[in-house]
Amino acid sequence: MNISDLIQMLGQNIWIYGGAFILVLSILVFVHEWGHYIIARMCNVRVETFSIGFGKELWGRTDKGGTHWKISMIPLGGYVQLFGDTDPASAGHTDCVEGEDGKAREMTKAERDVAFFTKPLWQRAAVVFAGPAINYIFAIILLTGLYTIHGQPVSPPTAAAVIGGSSADKYGFKVHDYIISIDGKAITSFGDIRREMMVALDKESHFVIKRNGEFMDIYAKPERLHMEDRFGFKSSIGVLGLISSEQGILVNEVKQIDGVDYSDANLVLAELQSRMGSTFQISLDLGDELRVLTINPMADKNKKLGSAENIKQEALYLSNIPIKSYSPHTIITAMQSATREAYVMTRSSLEALGQMVVGTRSATELGGLIRIGAIAGDMAQQGIVPLILLMALLSINLGFINLLPIPMLDGGHLLFNFFEGILGKPVPEVVQDYAFKAGFVFLIGIMAFANLNDVYQIIVART
C-alpha cells in the first residue's frame, strides 16, 4: 500500500477511524475527569469548570452548584478546574478572587472553605488520585460486564505444537507441555504466555512446566522479532515458538510429514490418521516458506477427521485437552479476572517502559494519536465487543500513565503531596512552578515525538 492508497483508505473510512477515536477518547477523558470531580465535591471543594476538550467552547451550561460543564473544539483531552487554583493543572493557587467591580479581593471565609488549596493533605491527595483510580475501576467494570455476558476468551496454557527451529524447540519444550508459571508468575491461559514473552523480548525466563504428570524447570530465552502492522507501525516482541490449543491445521496445507513430500492431500489425511498418538513433524505451506511443527495429535480428539465432504475442510486438532474458547463467569469471578487483567497489564506496561528507559526496547515503539486512532478504527469495524475491550485496555493505560511521577500529571501532584507529608509543609511554590514547567516541556516533547514517529513510520512503510 503506497501513500496515495493509504490516504484514500483513511478518507473513505474517516468517520469510522476518526469517529471511533473521538468517541473512545472522549469517554475515557470524561471518566477520568469525573473521578476528580466527584471526589472534589465529596470533599466540599467547589468545581469551577468541567471541560471535555480544549480551546473554543462549543457547548456549555452551568449547574446549580456553580460548575460550568462544556465541550470544547479540540477533543484531545479535558480538565477539571478547582476553585482557588490558578490553572486547570493545579500548578498554583491564589487566595484572591475577582469581585463584582472586576478588581481582585481576598476570599471570604465561606470561599476559603470550598477552595482546593485549603483542604487537608489527605483530601487533596484523594482528589488527585481519583482520576487514575476511576480509570482502573471503569476498565474493571467493562471487563467484568464482558466476561459475565460473553465469557472470558481463554485458551489453556499448553503447547499443542512446537515450531521447528524456534526458541521453544531449541530450549527443549515438548508437545503437550503445560506451563504452570513464568518467573514465578502464575500462568492461567495461553494469552498469559504470549504476554510474558512479548515483554520479555530476548531475556531469559524461568518456566515451570508439567510434562507427563511431573513438574520440570526450563530456562529459555524467546526470540526477539520486529513486527510491522498494515499501517507501517513497528514494534518489537518476544516469541517463544509454541502453538496454542485453539489453533488447528488444515490437512491440505500439510506438504511434508517427517520430511517426506506429499502432493496429494488424501494421502496426507491417511498418513495423519495412521500416526495418531505419536510424535512427528509436519511442514506447512505458508506461501513463501515451509513452517515445520512438531505435533502429537490424539485419536480421541480427531474422531471427525476424514468425515468432511471436501478435503479442503479437513482440520487436524493438535491439542490433547479441550479448547476453552470462552470461560463462563459469575459476576464475582468475572470481577476477579478483570482485576487480575488490570494488574497484569499495568505490570507489563511498567516493564516495557523500563526497557525503553534502559535501551533494551526502542522508544520508536511509542505510539501517538494516529496509532490509537488506527487501532480504534480497526476495533470499531470488528464490532462493539472488541471496541469495548479496547476501551477497557486504554482506560488502564490512561490510569497508569497519569500515575507516573511526572509534574503536570496526577502522579507528579501525588509526589509533591508525598513530600509535603514527609516535610510537614508544602513544597515551596516556586519549586513546584519550575517543576511543572519542566514537566510541561517534557510531556509536549514526548507527545510530539510519538505523533511524528507515527507519521514517519507510515511514510517510510509506503516509500
How would you describe this structure to a colleague?
With 463 residues, the protein is of the alpha+beta class. The protein folds into 3 domains: 3-43 and 119-148 and 368-461, no CATH class; 155-247 and 318-324, PDZ domain (Pdz3 Domain, Roll); 248-317, no CATH class. Helix content is 45%, strand content 22%. The chain has 12 helices and 20 strands. The strands form 7 sheets. It has a 6-stranded antiparallel β-sheet with strand order 13-6-18-17-15-16, covered by helices on one side. A 4-stranded antiparallel β-sheet has the order 8-7-9-10, with helices on one face. A hairpin with a 2-residue loop joins strand 7 (178-182) and strand 8. Helix 9 (369-382) packs antiparallel against helix 10. The longest helix is centred in the last third of the chain and has 33 residues, at 429-461. The protein is elongated. The N and C termini lie close together (9 Å).
Q: How far apart are the first and last residues' alpha carbons, in Å?
A: 9 Å
Q: How does the helix and strand content classify structurally? A: alpha+beta
Major sheet: 6 strands, antiparallel
Strand order of the largest sheet: 13-6-18-17-15-16
Number of helices: 12
**Proportion in helices:** 40-55%
User: Beta-strand level of the residues, as a percent range?
Assistant: 15-25%
**Radius of gyration using CA atoms only:** 27 Å
List segments where confidence is low: pLDDT < 50 over at least 5 consecutive residues: none
